[in-house]
């Protein structure tokens, strides 16, 4: 029953497919809930605004003796002028070099405010080619930034961790890290918690948004809530375009403000991108937890058998097999003694229990010794067999750098 249930889980719905389908269902539910909330919040305001506009339009037509079709034709011309960047108030030129630089920055970062768009056919064709390579290069830059910010945080947290070990007496006072573990990238022996990294990135993103909002409130004249809203929409690359900074014709200290605006947007996008990736790892862990809860529910007979096993045995054969697999990967000197074992649910023998305890104790002593001396743990040979075994992109960076996502945890 156990073997048939395992085969049923592995083909065709394995763990990755199950996680994908569960995430798709949760995203669909999340989208539906968000649409319901925003519809309830914004729909009355939209209806009231439409009613006020119709009243204003009719009053204007009656007072100035202009027919409604002529007035609507004039308003359509004004909307077309707005689409190409013409406003009633004096604004900065859209396609001078600073304006064009601002535009290409929003293109490659995928912010896409929409306040400036190419009007010529040549400009639209060039944008397709330009955005293809620009967006790819910027995503690579975000991934490299993610890797370095995680490495920096891990280096600082590791120094704090070693200081804590010295205070507790587990490390000698004159201990110095060797060259094999002193580098920022050599974090195999100790990895920071994904939750600590998420907290630090969240605090940094909040502080950066608050500082940027104070600048926009003082320079642009927005209220603070609108400034915070603009920071989130911009830093998360949503880019609605209802609020856009640095669009007036003249500012006080204009060059300094443009430079500060560029730096805030650059650092904000990089930081929020890193934070989003860390949060995605936490969501993945939640999905794994949910899948474990539903494990073997497809087969009531197997679930019933596993429940009876857990009541009869404090240590199940499956758990002991998993411990031996970990032992074989962590240190090659331990031999497996699973040969001839019965997997039908009987209690394990005292010899198996003693051997399992010895192996677990040896692994524990080995890990404690490596932690105290600063030596990295051995990495499984299987992870070096191909370049894509640990994944690619931001998730691979997080898997290699953080403790909760490592296979050896």
UniProtKB/TrEMBL annotation:
One of its GO terms (molecular function) is potassium ion leak channel activity. GO terms for cellular component: monoatomic ion channel complex; plasma membrane. SUPFAM superfamilies: Voltage-gated potassium channels. Belongs to the two pore domain potassium channel (TC 1.A.1.8) family. InterPro entries: 2pore_dom_K_chnl, 2pore_dom_K_chnl_THIK, K_chnl_dom. It is a multi-pass membrane protein. This is KCNKC protein. Coiled coil: none annotated. GO terms for biological process: stabilization of membrane potential. Keywords: Cell membrane, Ion channel, Ion transport, Membrane, Metal-binding, Potassium, Potassium channel, Potassium transport, Transmembrane, Transmembrane helix, Transport, Voltage-gated channel. It is found in: Cell membrane. Signal peptide: none annotated.
């Amino acid at each position: 029953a156990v073997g048939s249930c395992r085969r049923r889980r592995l083909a065709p719905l394995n763990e990755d497919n199950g996680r994908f389908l569960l995430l798709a269902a949760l995203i669909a539910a999340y989208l539906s809930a968000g649409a319901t909330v925003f519809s309830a919040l914004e729909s009355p305001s939209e209806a009231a605004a439409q009613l006020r506009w119709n009243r204003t339009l009719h009053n204007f037509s009656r007072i100035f003796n202009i027919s409604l079709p002529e007035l609507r034709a004039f308003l359509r011309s004004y909307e077309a002028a707005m689409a190409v960047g013409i406003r009633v108030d004096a604004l900065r030129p859209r396609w001078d070099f600073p304006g064009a630089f601002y535009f290409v920055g929003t293109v490659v970062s995928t912010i896409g405010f929409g306040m400036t768009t190419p009007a010529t056919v040549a400009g639209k064709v060039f944008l397709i080619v330009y955005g293809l390579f620009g967006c790819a290069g910027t995503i690579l830059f975000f991934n490299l930034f993610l890797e370095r910010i995680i490495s920096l945080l891990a280096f600082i947290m590791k120094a704090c961790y070693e200081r804590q070990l010295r205070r507790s007496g587990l490390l000698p006072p004159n201990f110095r890290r060797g060259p094999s573990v002193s580098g920022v990238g050599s974090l195999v022996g100790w990895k920071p918690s994904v939750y600590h990294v998420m907290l630090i990135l969240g605090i940094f993103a909040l502080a950066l948004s608050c500082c940027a909002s104070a600048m926009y409130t003082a320079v642009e004249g927005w209220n603070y809530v609108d400034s915070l809203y603009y920071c989130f929409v911009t830093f998360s690359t949503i880019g609605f375009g209802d609020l856009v900074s640095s669009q007036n014709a003249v500012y006080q200290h204009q060059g300094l403000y443009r430079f500060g605006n560029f730096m805030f947007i650059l650092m904000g996008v990089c930081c929020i991108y890193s934070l989003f990736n860390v949060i995605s790892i936490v969501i993945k862990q939640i999905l794994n937890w949910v899948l474990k809860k539903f494990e073997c529910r497809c087969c009531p007979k197997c679930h019933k058998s596993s429940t009876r096993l857990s009541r009869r045995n404090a240590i199940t054969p499956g758990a002991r097999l998993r411990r031996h697999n970990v032992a074989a990967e962590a240190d090659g000197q331990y031999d497996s003694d699973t040969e001839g074992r019965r997997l039908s649910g009987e209690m394990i023998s005292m010899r198996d229990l003693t051997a399992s305890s010895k192996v677990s104790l040896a692994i524990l002593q080995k890990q404690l010794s490596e932690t105290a001396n600063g030596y990295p743990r051995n990495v499984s040979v299987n992870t070096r067999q191909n370049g894509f075994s640990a994944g690619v992109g931001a998730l691979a960076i997080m898997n290699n750098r953080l403790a909760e996502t490592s296979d050896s945890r």
